Amino acid sequence: MASRVVLLGPLLALLFIVSTCALEASSSSQSVFSLDRYGARGDGKHDDTPALVKAWKAACSSSSPAVVLVPKGKRYLLKLVTLAGPCKSSSVQVAVQGTLVASPNRADWSDNNRRHWIVFRGVNKLTVNGGGTVDGSGETWWKNSCKINKALPCKEAPTALSFHYCTNLRVQGLKIVNSQQIHMSVEDCTNVQLAGLSITASGTSPNTDGVHITRSRDVQVTNCKIKTGDDCISIENGTHNLHVSKVVCGPGHGISIGSLGDDNSRAEVSGITIDSVQLYGTTNGARIKTYQGGTGYARDITFQNMVMDNVQNPIIIDQNYCDKATPCQASGSAVEVSNVVFKNIRGTTSSEDAIKLDCSQSVPCHGITLQNIDLRMVAGSSGGATTQSTCQNAGWTKFGTVLPQPCSAKN
């Protein structure tokens, strides 16, 4: 036994030396810039925006890969802030281990800057992760929304996290809660991975989309849970090569491509795959919506392997969409919708119109595929109602079993 102890002593010493060297090597490969080092209080009461700005500037100008650290167990109060590149550092990681909380005072935003809260702009190789929370303090904004109080004028509210003109972007393992309006917006970005996100707000919160994507390409969204008062994922103009998989959604308005062509604008969307998604109690399931009067296209789109539970409109293409205070005018132009596949979709609906293809008379939908679909009325529906489908100006093809029978009600 004594000889074993004697031998164990040098061995432990050697292991300690090796582990210490490894730790020092790891620390030397990255420079860490903690908010606390730059004067942050982390008490959720004092404004820590200046500390975050200083930590970001130091990290962005670092000669080595840099980490901006939001320490665990604290709440850092932030007002409107923009963290911009390009950065000297070859990569920047923002490790949110604690909580970033928005100022609850709406007066901290003027009418000129109401659309944003935390903005990352023009950064290459940015990673935002850490397992912490981004809290938008949205309740005070929601009750002052015109959608909640009809007597109030309609005004925009901030998006919690905005990414503009970023390349090689990774956002992983965050909790984003109670955003003032949209929870996360990806705009004009390339090569984006969003993974392991939990996005939560009240089902009655207005305009609180989970993830909003526009003018971006090569985007992946995987393993996310989204419960909000609006679209779980909204996909708008300029989105190309987007792959969404393993997302759980509800409550909310489902997954929407659009709205496209608003105010006679041109829209281009292509290469969209929505795969292995579960929707619970949402207003819509797989949805494409366009305004009359627009131009452009929405094409090469696949919704597949989807499970729906009590979804009001499981499958819907609406080229006559209108979300205006006054009725939209009929028009001879429209965003062309083509090459759309709805495949392996099953579950329950609270609406008799489980499949609704309401397309433009002037620019009909074409190349619509319905394959292996089984959508039934939710249990307990009154009158023994069964599901049906409706089509207007839609060219479709059926493969396999499709329930309800496509477009049997009217054409």
Automatic annotation (TrEMBL):
Pfam families: Glyco_hydro_28
Entry's EC annotation: 3.2.1.15
Enzyme class, broadest EC rank: hydrolase
BP terms from Gene Ontology: anther dehiscence; carbohydrate metabolic process; cell wall modification involved in abscission; fruit dehiscence
Signal peptide: 1-22
Keywords: Cell wall, Cell wall biogenesis/degradation, Glycosidase, Hydrolase, Secreted, Signal
Molecular-function GO terms, alphabetical: polygalacturonase activity
SUPFAM superfamilies linked to this entry: Pectin lyase-like
Catalytic residue list: 253
Annotated PROSITE patterns: POLYGALACTURONASE (PS00502)
Primary site of residence: secreted
TM region positions: none
PANTHER family in the cross-refs: PTHR31375
Stated family: Belongs to the glycosyl hydrolase 28 family.
Protein name, as recorded: endo-polygalacturonase
Gene: gb10542
